[in-house]
Amino acid sequence: MPEKFDRKRVELSFRRFSDFADDVLSSEYSTFDAYLNIFVNHCENDEIMSIICNQLKHDSTILDDWESRNNLAGIIHRVSGIKLTLPTDEKQRDILLYQICLKVNKGETDIFSVYFDFNSCSPDEAVHNFNTDFVKPMVRSIGYKLEEIEYDIETDLKDERYIPITVFYVYQDYSTNITGDVNTKGDAAIGEGANIEKKSII
């Protein structure tokens, strides 16, 4: 994978993300699968967007926990009166929504059948509800991250043509492990066998 990306390629990648997302959000039942597949393919395989979206795939416990607690109840609230529940933490919410979209695109979760169980919901309405409940907030939140990246590029790298890959790690957290018989002072580890290991947790 390249360590730097041409600024114009970054702009085009972000624009495609927005345009493909718009196609999904404006789709009907007959076109939803096709447009969702195009959108997910861009997120998964575009050399720039994949760096960002891969950060939303490594923690499956958030989706597993949500599914076990909701038992699909969270996605039938429009027709059953049960309220949708989502994490308040931005990163956890983006992870959950993105992984739900991946499962739907792969056919691993037939979310629409839950909506279809009720006579009051047509196939087109099910698509609209799913887009409103899951796709739209996910796209909006990731869009905020893209705006943050664009701002950082304009303020810190405004004269640079090539953008370093580190700019795109917007969901990445860091932790530090210190081993050995040591004392710490600030960022320093003092003592025999002292070792500082910085790890990234995506």
Characterize the largest beta sheet: strand count, sense, and whether it forms a barrel. Answer: 2 strands, antiparallel
Which runs of at least 5 residues are low in confidence (pLDDT < 50)?
A: 174-179, 184-190, 194-202
State the end-to-end distance.
Answer: 18 Å
> Pairing-aware structural class of the strands and helices?
alpha+beta
Strand content: 5-15%
Helix count equals 8
Round the mean pLDDT to the nearest integer and report it.
82
**Total beta-strand segments:** 6
Shape: globular
Q: Please tell me the total number of domains.
A: 2
Radius of gyration using CA atoms only = 21 Å
Q: Strand sequence of the main sheet, in spatial order? A: 1-2
Give the H and E element order: EHHHHHHHHEEEEE
* Helix content bin: 55-70%
